[in-house]
Amino acid sequence: MKNYKITVLKGDGIGPEIVDECVKVLDKAGEKFGFSFDYNYQLLGGCAIDEYGVPYPDETAKACKASDAVLLGAVGGPKWDSQPGNNRPEKGLLAIREDLGLFANLRPAKIFAPLKSASPIKEEIIGDGLDILIVRELTGGIYFGDRCESEIHNGAERAWDLENYSVPEVDRITRFAMEAARKRHGHVTSVDKSNVLATSRLWRRTVIKIHDEDYPDVQLDHMYVDNCAQQFAIHPSFFDVVVTGNLFGDILSDEAAVLSGSIGMLPSASIGNETSLYEPIHGSAPDIAGKGIANPIATILSAAMLLRYSLNEDKAADAIEAAVNQALDDGYRTGDIYKEGMKKVNGRGMTDAILARIQ
Questions:
Q1: Is the pLDDT confidence value at 172 over 80?
Q2: Which of 54, 63, 154, 201 is the most buried (most CB within 10 A)?
Q3: Pairing of β 69-74 and β 102-110
Q4: How far apart are CA 163 and CA 143, in angstroms?
C-alpha cells in the first residue's frame, strides 16, 4: 500500500476545524483507493507566533520540505493585529511560498449546479455551468520586479514598478497549464497584453513554441486580458484552463471567484518543483471559529487538488469532487449557503454527507 507524507498546517480561526473535517475525507479516499497518509502537524501563522514568536518557524519549514504535499487551513485574525508588519500571520504565507518555490497558483472557479442561483451571471449565460482553472504564474512579473516608490524626474515626483519575465519562467508555467488541460478538457487560453507590452510578446511566442513542439494535442487560444475579463462574464463556458502572468492572474482569478457565486467554497493550490501547498481561498473567519458551523467544502476540494496534482491519485480526486456534488445535489447545506427547504447541517454534518457519498 502506498503511503504519503502530508504536512498539515491547521492555522488560525476556523482553520483547525475545517482541516480536521478534511482529514477525515482524505482518510476515507485512501481507504477506498488503496493508499494511506502519515500526517505531520505543524504551525503557521498566528498560532506559530504564539508558540515560537514567528509566523513560519524553522520546524515547519523542515517538515514541509520533507513532505509529499502541504495542507493548510487559514491564517490570521485580530488577535495578532498588534504584531509589527514584518511579523504578522500573513507574512507566514509569503514566507512559505518563497521558501518552497511555489511558482504556480491554481484557482478553480466552478458553479455547482445546485448553487446556480448564487451566481451573479444569468442562467442563460451560464449554460451548462462555469468550470475554469486559472493557472497564475506566482513568483515573477511586476510583483517581483525592481521598483521605486519616489524619485524626481523632469521636475516631478514619480514611482515605477518593473514588469519582466524570462523564457524559463514562461516555459515552466506553460508546461504546467498544458499538463493540467490534458487532465481536464484539453483547452488552454493564454492571456496577455501583447499588443502593448514587450513582456507579453515574449510570453506569447514562448507559449506558442512550447505548444507547437510538445503539446499539439491541446487546443491553444490567445486572448488579451481586457477581452478575457469581458468573456468571463458573457461567455464563461468557452474557458477550460487559463494561463497568465502574476498581475493578470491576480485580477482574473478574483473575478472568476465572484462569478462562481460561492467564494467560500473554492479551493486553491500553489505548486512548487518539489512540494506544493493546498488551501481554501477564504479567510480564517475568527467570528465563527470554534462554533463548528464553518463550511469545510473549500478545504475538502483543496484536498482533492492535492490528490490530483501532487500524488497523481486522479480517481480518488474524482470521487471526492463527485461526493461534494452529490451532497449538494441531495440538499445538504451549511449556514453560509443555506436556503429554505434545504437540509441545514453544521461543518461535521456536511463532512458526514460527503463521506457517505465517496464511491
A1: yes
A2: 63
A3: unpaired
A4: 8
What does the alpha-carbon distance between residue 347 and residue 325 come to, in Å, rounded to a whole number?
16
Residue 260: pLDDT above 90?
A: no
335 SS3 class: helix
Going by their DSSP bridges, the two strands 187-192 and 241-244 should be labelled as: parallel
- What digits encode the pLDDT tens for the residues 321-351? 999 999 999 999 999 888 899 999 999 999 9
The three-state secondary structure class of 95 is: helix
250 is a catalytic site residue: yes
Whole-number Å distance between alpha carbons of 176 and 270: 12
Query: 42 with 63: CB under 8 angstroms?
Result: yes
Nearest Cα to 37, choosing from 45, 28, 46? 28
Average pLDDT, the chain: 94
DSSP-based three-state secondary structure for 61: helix
Alpha carbons 45 and 16: distance in angstroms, whole number: 12
CA angle 169–171–177, rounded 5-degree value: 105
- DSSP secondary-structure letter at 238? G
Q: How far apart are CA 65 and CA 354, in angstroms?
A: 31
Q: Which whole-number Å values give the CA distances from 52 to 47, 49, 55, 56, in the listed order?
A: 9, 5, 8, 9
One of 20, 27, 99, 254 is an active-site residue; which one? Answer: 254
Structural contact between residues 243 and 190, judged by C-beta atoms closer than 8 angstroms: yes
Q: Active-site residue 226, yes or no?
A: yes
143 catalytic, yes or no?
yes
Query: Active site residue: 143, 161, 318, 338, which one?
Result: 143
DSSP 218: S
End-to-end CA distance of the chain: 19
Single-letter code of the amino acid located at 277? L
- Model pLDDT for residues 91-122, shown as the tens digit of each residue: 999 899 989 999 999 999 988 878 887 788 88
